[in-house]
Amino acid sequence: MVRIGAFLVGLFFAGWLLVSFLMGAVAYVSEPPVPTVEKAFHELPKHVAFSFDGPLGHYDKQQLQRGFQVYKEVCSACHSLKFVAFRDLEALGYNEAEVKAIAKQWAIKAPSVDPATGEASTREPMPADYFPKPFANNVAAAAANNNAIPPDLSLMTKARHHGSAYVYSLLTGYQAQPAALLKEFPDSKTPEGLHYNPYFANLNLAMAPPLTAEGQVTYSDGTKPTVDQMAKDVSAFLTWTAEPKLENRRRAGLATIIFLLIATGLAYMSYQNIWAEKKKAA
Amino acid sequence: MSFPWAEQYTPKNPVMVWIDEKLPLPRLAYNAVGAGYPVPRNLNYFWNFGVLAGLALMIQIITGVVLAMHYGANDLVAFSTVEQTMRDVNAGWLMRYAHANGASFFFIVVYLHIFRGLYFGSYKAPREMVWLLGLVIFLLMMATAFMGYVLPWGQMSYWGAKVITGLFGAIPVVGEPIQTWLLGGFAPGNASLNRFFSLHFLLPFVIAGVIILHIWALHIPGSSNPTGVEVKGPQDTVPFHPYYTAKDGFGAGIFLIAFCTLLFFAPNFLGHPDNYIEANPLSTPAHIVPEWYFWPFYAILRAFTVDFFFVPAKLLGVLAMFASILLLFFLPWLDTSPVRSGKYRPTFNKFFWILILDVLILGYCGGAPAEEPFVMISQVASAYYFAHFLIILPLISRFEKPLPLPGSITEAVLAKYGKTDGATVAVPAE
Q: What does the pLDDT average to over B140-164?
């Protein structure tokens, strides 16, 4: 009974799947899928080398500080960093007093309550505060940015495939729409107010090119602030904001793996030792 | 239970004697996973994965209990409490990554455990109950993993919950009320998150309970072995401890090395980037995909694209997906060959490896976007999946001519290590 029932169920599922396959195949041949503009022109991130690449790479604190400066002077006007607190900046090599000063001088004030009236007010941020958001809410953010909400950047490099390289490629990838694209897809002209960028999933991005000219920020360590350098530095900084414990993790991992290799070696030897009698020819 | 020649628990320490009289728990452990459990002497490394699955469950429970101390099951804060755990809790990143990757490793070892059962015919009499309970554990694991993936409340959490509960919505008439009842609303929200958290915390302990039944059921006939020939006498077995505890210790080492390599050096390799974006009901991700361990089933679900008369394709997909797992419950009665081990079944062997390849292809298609040619490939692969278990396997069992089996486990072992004299011939058990 079980086998007859199973046979019928199997025949039904397998048969109907093959019918679906044949119908799909006929449709595929008679009306081949039309290539989309995204399929044809979207590009994978560029190859770019960072100090934290590879299983044992480290952050370059100088670079993180430079990247932080780019965030502070360029990105922070629109993008929040809500999971990062000023106190976290000590990991970039700033001391306590410097962190205090950075918080105090931050352009956006922290939301607060007026102690006298109880009304909403603002105050100077403190090291314990998270980076204040540039817009009060999503409506304000959309209104100020041509109806596009600038995403929070705390986790950006983990929220995209090839995160660090993606941010770098996006920042350096703005270009005029290729003539070939317009020829092949005449309807896909970048709409007014958007910007063509082949590294962006749908090719047209609301954000105007943020890094436009050499010297847009002035690095105190003497590094030449080319667009490429700034993009690389801010990508490194955003890798840190997304994965601040990366170095602890790799250090702990190395110790763990060494320990496990030794322990497993010993376990193997005791296994062989215990079984020695049983594994011999009689 | 167990064989008559099993070693007996004889406590010498007066404290242990006293405990044994009052509550013979040490005796139970001794007979279950100690020297009191005789196990075939010829088990290969595939027999390590049961213990490894137990280890993976322990890792999940320990890391999970710690994570629950820092987690806020509320749709407004869930995403941020997970991030705060990663950033501000001592070793919080370790707990979180260990739990996320631990789930994957739990499935890796369980899939290998199931593979072992399928190839070596462990589901056959007299071990049907072990197999059935194992499948119950597998279903509970899937439910637990699905609900756990919702908890961080990222984009994939949210949309995954929506798609999976939407499967129930495909059932005619009662489907939509069931979906609303499951979610506690018309879309995933705070009510869904809270109940998923509650159940995600509960189910691992239910799994632990069913594991006890699984081991209990196993101890009645005793463990199977790669030859599929039953134990015939004391010369065929060794005590679980120290022989298999030592081997499992080595296996656990290898498991932990693989687990820690991923955990410490590529913790997001098996995850999806979209889950680092907070859940947003207004923005649907381009491709909604579940975690990798659900991909083969997801491919079967999406393989149905054509309505069968009045039955919509979506409902067929849902039925097929559930059927693809439920059919495994009938396996002991579909495969009627008296020979257990695939080693001695030449025809079964060929089709078995086609099945493994087929499931890998289904897995690949399940993770790929729902576009051609992946849909067509999953249709053919799903058709084979059903045909294999429901049509081919019963036919093979009927017509296959198996290879000669070794006379006993000992004979097989001695053949492997180069037996010299003919003195050691298996003595049948009385």
A: 96
Domain B46-288, CATH class in plain words: mainly alpha
- Minimum distance, in Å, between the CA of residue B306 and any CA atom of chain A: 6
Classify residue A111 by burial, with Cβ atoms within 10 Å: 0-12, 13-18, 19+: middle
ipTM: 0.93
The C-alpha atoms of residue B121 and residue B336 are separated, in whole angstroms, by 10
Distance of CA A155 to the CA centre of its chain: 6
Cα A156 to Cα A162, B32, B266, B273: the distances in Å are 11, 50, 17, 9
This prediction has a pTM of 0.94
Q: How far apart are CA B239 and CA B111, in angstroms?
A: 27
List, for residues B329-382, the tens digit of each pLDDT value. Answer: 999 999 999 999 999 999 999 999 999 999 999 999 999 988 888 999 999 999
CB contact under 8 Å between B372 and A263, yes or no, is: no
- The tens digit of pLDDT for each residue in A7-17 reads 999 999 999 99
Q: How many CB atoms lie within 10 A of CB B255?
A: 24
pLDDT value of residue B2: 75
Question: How much is the pLDDT for B430?
Answer: 43
Secondary structure of chain A as H, E, C letters: CHHHHHHHHHHHHHHHHHHHHHHHHHHHHHCCCCCCHHHHHCCCCCCCCCCCCCCCCCCCHHHHHHHHHHHHHCHHHCCCCCCCEHHHHHHHCCCHHHHHHHHHCCCCCEEEECCCCCCEEEECCCCCCECCCCCCCHHHHHHHCCCCCCCCCCCCCCCCCCHHHHHHHHHHCCCCCCHHHHHHCHHHCCCCCCEECCCCCCCEECCCCCCCCCCCCCCCCCCCCCHHHHHHHHHHHHHHHHCCCHHHHHHHHHHHHHHHHHHHHHHHHHHHHHHCCCCCCC
The structure tokens listed for B192 are 């869904």
Task: Determine contact: A2 vs chain B, CB below 8 A.
Answer: yes
Q: What are the extents of the domains in chain B? A: 7-36, 46-288, 295-403
Nearest neighbour of B87 by CB, restricted to A244, A250, A278: A244
